[in-house]
Design a protein that fits this description.
By secondary structure, the protein is an alpha/beta fold. It folds into 2 domains: about 130 residues, 3-Layer(aba) Sandwich (Rossmann fold), CATH 3.40.50; about 120 residues, Winged helix-like DNA-binding domain superfamily/Winged helix DNA-binding domain (Arc Repressor Mutant, subunit A), CATH 1.10.10. The chain is built from 9 helices and 13 strands. It has a 5-stranded parallel beta sheet, with helices on both faces. A hairpin with a 4-residue loop joins strand 8 and strand 9. About 0% of the residues have low confidence.
Length: about 250
Amino acid sequence: MTKVLVVEDDAMIRDRLLKALNFEGYDARGAENGAEGLQAVDEAAPDLVISDILMPDVGGFDFVSVLRSRPETRLVPIIIITALSERLSQREFMELGVDDYLTKPFHIEELLRAVKTQLRKRNWWQTEHRDLREAQQLIFADWRMDVERRTLISARGEERSLTSSEAQLLLAFLRNANRVLDRETLVEMLGRPQSSSNDRSIDVLIGRLRRKIEPDVKRPRIIETIRSGGYIFNGDVKWIAAEATG
């Protein structure tokens, strides 16, 4: 049974989420703050974590930072639920390695959809890219991608974590380097629901990825926009097998 950990200091909200998750067939467990959440993680490793941000004792930012620093939890999907709506806070979530976030108040159905999406991405990563994990590392531009750890390492040794969505998108580009990909194709490659013609969620995701890999985000050269065509990943990609990494 899929284990879900809910870290939320508001008892009413926590109980409501736990009831909904358990009703959907998940093995959901709650914690009042980040300290209790870390204890719960140590006792039973979750398959997915839902966490608030503003909590007493150990807050959400510190809690997520610890999870992302541990090898055994760095790839566990994390969904943030928060009353913070400022764009700066949202950017901070993504830089921490959060996979998704919902702004309070939200409907339970929204959360359940987010949970299913992140678990589907986790399963996709574990099954569809075994060949990539065997390759272990991909080199492009001034970056080296560690597929297993889902991280980027620059030529200067700077390390940046990727969310599951960012990693999926980057791998789609790397596998189709120097080929124009339209939005619909990218949506299909990422296994997302069909979007409307006005849906720009892929553009937002590409913007996040560009901030992590482009030398100049205002003049992107690695991931280039093709007017009325979509996007193209420019450059050579080198695949390094595990035994060759030393």
